[in-house]
Amino acid sequence: MNRRQFLLEIKRGLVEALKETALPFVEEDARKIEEVADRLTGITWYATGMKGMPESGRVESVVIGRKEFFLFGSRRERGVKAIENRCRECGSLLCYLSYNNQLKCLTCTKTFDMAAEEGDLCPIVFPIKKEGQMWFIGVKRGPHNSFT
């Protein structure tokens, strides 16, 4: 090994050591920044009780407090989406039609195709994140969001 190779190996070792040492601090700072952003925007995260990815084409119903959400695997975004079980137009509960993978408002007769993620029904989408194996739904605090 010549001097140049030796110095390059020392440099590589130092960079790796710095990465390993600094990573926990950077992750902690990122978590704190995320918590501050959530407080400023008024978002509270609730555990769904669902672990892992939902099977393709399958919709999971999750109840948090007084609200029901549909969680499903999004093919478009390659992740999980959370939709509230309420019609944005009239406030009625939505009906999930499993035989054609659609949400339907029986009052407005509008539909939303969950596979294609389109339709005349415009669902209320909530932010979702995964920590470890558990999925969490972000709900913005407000006069209409009562979870007691």
Question: Overview of this structure, please?
Answer:
- The mean pLDDT is 80.
- The longest helix has 39 residues, at 3-41.
- With 148 residues, the chain is an alpha+beta fold.
- The strands form three sheets. It has a four-stranded antiparallel beta sheet with strand order 2-3-4-8, with no helix packed on it. The protein has a three-stranded antiparallel beta sheet with strand order 1-10-9.
- It has one helix and ten strands; from the N terminus they run αββββββββββ.
Main attributes of the structure:
148 residues, alpha+beta, 4-stranded antiparallel beta sheet, 3-stranded antiparallel beta sheet, 26% helix
Q: How many β-strand stretches?
A: 10
Beta-strand content estimate: 35-45%
Question: What structural class do helix, strand and pairing data support?
Answer: alpha+beta
DSSP helical segment count:
1
Could you report the average pLDDT, rounded to the nearest whole number? 80
What proportion of the residues is helical, as a percent range?
A: 25-40%
The largest sheet is: 4 strands, antiparallel
| Spatial sequence of strands, sheet with the most strands | 2-3-4-8
Instruction: Describe the oligomeric state of these chains in a short phrase.
Output: single chain
